[in-house]
């Protein structure tokens, strides 16, 4: 990007978590934010919702290892302007940045076509989960225990237990072991694609 005459990278800020990202916004408003879904102390989608709620309108391109069929629509609803899977960075980053900086929405051709017919393909059951439930499910799949999930998401242990119960009900899972196994399979599938 720095070598392209259409782009001028004058300054750059980097944040590895939600807290640092919010602090960076208090110093300077970016022309473009590149955001990951999974942040060390929270979720990029929730950060985006908070940023939009306080009135920031800068373009935001999300990049993640997670399957775009699950996240592209969620990103747009949260206020993001595009979604790019990390495995496609080398081939599509320039086009994605160019699209969102010029006011467009960037999604892969596959997802655009699917969304055009308003029939976003989602794995069975998972599509019914809220953004927060997906976040808890992902953390469970990464091997986090209830107390760890609570600390990462800044919620109570009781709230995490409620999410775990809701996840079991929505996904037809009998117990915590089935929940952990399903979440682990989902995370492994998402990261291996």
Topology of this structure?
Layout: H1 18-27, E1 33-36, E2 38-39, E3 42-43, H2 44-53, E4 60-64, H3 68-78, E5 82-85, H4 89-101, H5 109-116, H6 131-141, H7 146-153, H8 157-170, H9 176-192
Parallel strand pairs: 1-4, 4-5
Antiparallel strand pairs: 2-3
Helix pairs in contact: 6-8, 6-9, 7-8
Features:
single chain, 193 residues, mainly alpha, Rossmann fold, Arc Repressor Mutant, subunit A, 2 domains, three-stranded parallel beta sheet, 9 helices, globular
Annotation field: number of helices: 9
What gyration radius follows from the Cα positions, in whole Å? Answer: 17 Å
Structural domain tally: 2
- Structural class, from secondary structure content? mainly alpha
The average pLDDT value, as a whole number, equals: 84
The low-confidence runs, each spanning 5 or more residues with pLDDT under 50, are 117-123
| Major beta-sheet overview | 3 strands, parallel
CATH class of the largest domain: Alpha Beta
> Which CATH architecture of the largest domain is right?
3-Layer(aba) Sandwich
Characterise the protein shown here.
The chain is mostly helical and 193 residues long. The chain has helices at residues 18-27, 44-53, 68-78, 89-101, 109-116, 131-141, 146-153, 157-170, 176-192; strands at residues 33-36, 38-39, 42-43, 60-64, 82-85. Strands 1-4-5 form a 3-stranded parallel sheet, with helices on both faces. Strands 2-3 form a two-stranded antiparallel sheet. The protein starts with 17 loop residues before the first helix and ends with a helix. Mean pLDDT is 84; it is low at 117-123.
